[in-house]
Design brief:
Two copies of one chain form a homodimer.
Chain A: H1 9-13, E1 17-20, E2 23-27, H2 40-52, E3 60-68, E4 76-86, E5 90-99, E6 102-112, E7 120-121, E8 149-155, E9 171-177, H3 185-192, H4 198-202, E10 209-218, H5 222-226, E11 233-238, E12 241-243, E13 246-254, E14 260-270
Antiparallel strand pairs in A: 1-2, 2-4, 3-6, 3-10, 4-5, 5-6, 8-9, 9-11, 10-14, 11-13, 12-13, 13-14
Pfam families (chains A, B): 4HBT_3 (PF13622), 4HBT_3C (PF20789)
Organism (chains A, B): Staphylococcus nepalensis
InterPro entries (chains A, B): ACOT8-like_C, Acyl-CoA_hotdog, HotDog_dom_sf, TesB_ACOT8-like_N
């Protein structure tokens, strides 16, 4: 199977035009639209792309936090990315996405040069049947962004898609870009946010929700990630607590061959 | 037991002098010194305090991310706190701590007005013997900040303190301010960072480590927190992955009576 990186809808969706150092212009993508506005995962990837394409960037991302301050409108936006501190092997970033000169998204990130040292993964990869043996998510009544992923839910589908009665919000799913695309930090970022909202797993009504803050720790170094092929990854997530309008969503993303790629947590607003 | 909030060493350590709106001056505290420089938990609390004392602040904190960009020196510092976006019920913040006009810490936070709605805690509080039945941590060879806490480790003490052989980095501990102090968002923030580094639980050598980025989600609303008394809280934490110089530390803080107060995650640099 062959595919052209540059023509993949994901690369177009996150495309930025750098006007001057650290100042970019972009546009939301109809392919990755959500129910209202763009899919937050692709917006997070776009912010990360502004860092990785910055001429002063050193190393690869280890930490990213994105704060969704206001709804992103379907139109042009400006991104300003600034290194706030550059050390010998780590670099700290502050990034803002603006529309009408107002802050819509704020973000901090850390990039770093990793080096070989003692390493240990404590968590075991969850057991899961092979990707091909899990039925594909039916693409009925889903927003456009979902149609760019092949999602196969092993456990914890939204209540609207299943008759299973559940008592927790745990989801285990295979996911890959559709059409296929080689995994990189940008697609991994988006995949960290590509779980259905936890409250839809616990409760049937489609209440309004929105991510308030998203954090991703990248556990894979650039050279190992560079060896990954275009293949599905396994995502595991759950909410620990739903409390008075806000819940968390905590998860891990594993490569098919059992490497922990990223851990992620987000805080989500809900109206129930 | 009585105590004076204003004279508690923690309140002195996080004290800020607001010179103009959102511009503060503070000083590191010898009481909360770490091996080198100040304890990062108290620095995180001080940044949060700059938000909570800002005249434009609405609501109480729901999310806080603190990026430790460079070592904080033991001396004066300046904090600049800005609301980046104010909505009807949520507010987004960007805060920087500067020394010599350079960014040393950057931080984002979300404050919000919570409201009563459907709520559910999925995780059970870990089982633990009562605080009084667990031996107190011996205060030998510990940095000054540890001496401001009564820490009682049920499981997962640093290898230097114990002969237990362990295969994971899980720690379960009771902790409270010493002298006692009523719990608030500031002390809760600091307690989220008051676990010993995970790598010292897994491995004996005291290798250099430093938190790179810390995220806290506050699950307790202000009025419920206001009813908390000065009493120990239960902290549970673990690392999922140690990889080429960076590991995560993920945890939960519970009140004595089983309320989930906060979830937290941090990325830590280590040299092994």
């Amino acid at each position: 199977m062959t595919f052209n990186m540059q023509s993949h809808p994901f690369d177009n969706a996150t495309y930025l035009n750098q006007q001057e150092t650290g100042v970019y212009f972009g546009h939301t993508s109809a392919n990755y639209a959500n129910m209202i506005g763009p899919f937050g995962g692709v917006i997070a990837s776009t912010l990360l792309r502004s860092i990785l394409e910055h001429p002063d960037c050193i190393g690869s991302p280890v930490s990213l936090t994105v704060n969704y301050a206001a709804p992103v409108k379907d139109k042009d936006f400006k991104i300003i990315a600034k290194p706030t501190r550059t050390n010998r092997s780590t670099q700290h970033w502050y990034v803002e996405l603006l529309q009408n000169e107002q802050t819509v998204i704020s973000s901090t990130a850390v990039t770093a040069l990793k080096r070989n040292t003692w390493s240990s993964t404590e968590l075991a990869m969850p057991e899961a049947p092979p990707f091909k043996e899990v039925p594909k998510l039916p693409m009925i009544d889903v927003p456009p962004w979902v149609q760019n992923y092949d999602i196969r839910i092993i456990k914890g589908a939204p209540r609207a898609f299943t008759n299973d009665s559940v008592t927790d919000s745990v989801t285990l799913q295979w996911i890959e870009d559709m059409p296929k695309r080689k995994l990189d930090y940008l697609s991994l970022t988006s995949i960290c946010d590509a779980f259905f909202p936890r409250i839809y797993v616990r409760r049937e009504p489609f209440v309004p929700i929105g991510t308030v803050s998203l954090t991703i720790y990248f556990h894979i170094d650039a050279s190992t990630l560079g060896k990954e092929r275009a293949q599905p990854v396994l995502g595991h997530t759950r909410a620990i607590n739903f409390n008075e309008g806000f819940y968390d969503q905590t998860g891990e993303i594993w490569s098919s061959n059992g490497v922990l790629l990223a851990t992620t947590t987000q805080l989500v607003y809900y109206k129930a």
